[in-house]
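I am still getting used to backbone structure tokens and would like to learn alongside you. To get us started, please write out a protein record for me. Start from the sequence, derive the backbone structure tokens from it, and show both lines together. Once you have written the record down, we can walk along the chain together:
***
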Amino acid sequence: MSHDVQPPASNEEGLVSTQHGATPAPAGDPIADPGLPAHEPRPTDVDVDAEKRAERQIATMFGLSSVFAILFVVSYFVFDIGDHPTIIAGYGASNVALGVTLGLALLLIGIGAIQWARKLMSDVEVVEMRHTAASSDTDRVEAVKAFNQGVSDSGIARRPLLRNSLLGALATIGLPAILTLRDLGPLPRGDLATTAWRKGMRLVNDVAGTPIKPGDMEIGQLVNGEPAVFFEDRPDGTPKFEGTRLNDAKTKAAIIIVRMKPENITPPKGRENWGVEGILCFSKICTHVGCPISLWEQQTHHLLCPCHQSTFDLADGGKVIFGPAARSLPQLPIMVDSEGYLVAQSDFTEPVGPSYWERG
């Protein structure tokens, strides 16, 4: 057999190409080890000044990340939003400032970590044979050893400047996340406990704002309504509610008004005088997760939520008869005023909206 180097050939022939020509593949191995090019050190591996300079640059990035995270918090409180937002160059200043500061805070942490890995962490070539998905006990031990070696190679224990600046950046980057939780809305305990309804406030159609008299409703009819306050102006002519405050107030105070035969109604104890001639009023917000409901079955007196099929019996105080809702639909006590219009006796006597674990 000739010992001369053979020309490159395909794997099917048991030969592989390397930098030095074709080499027979060892028995049991899918491919011969092609070898690795000579290792070339990085500037930071041989130059102490370059190493220190890279360390300062990375620490600066982590420090700037902390600065931008703090600027995010400052921007959150400085720039107005809502009905009269602060505008700069035609854009909402709050959105621009929050986006830029948070983006730069995250970007600088990412760039700093990449530069740390490329310039300062151990620079060695690693070769590992492919293996099955299930690791052996030996592999697991090796994985732990490799992790510990990575910690050692990163130099995090002997580079307090980088370690402390990174920890500071990671700590401050959490401030925007904590702060923005405030925008999820107020706690439900206080926000849902009361609505805009007050004693003597008229029930009106939620589109035209027309007040309703008992004679305007037929048996079996359902009307979507709200308090007249949303259609009334203050004495000085300014609206009583505006913008998001108006939408929030309308949502909580939304009602449905139904009429059925008085003999079909079984009022809960203490609610005998909460209706007028078979007319009852309930919150329009499902007590499961807060979906608006108005799917009315005239014959059964059942109200169905379209989201998760919770069903309430309005002839029995809004009692839940099916579905995931945990409590009855809140009922608004109503009466007739001196001019014959339907008005509220008071606000809801219990919080409206979805149930939650703190609600009694």
About this structure: Residues 1-22 have pLDDT under 50 and may be disordered. Residues 1-31 form one domain. The chain has three domains: 1-31, 43-126+140-184, 190-344.
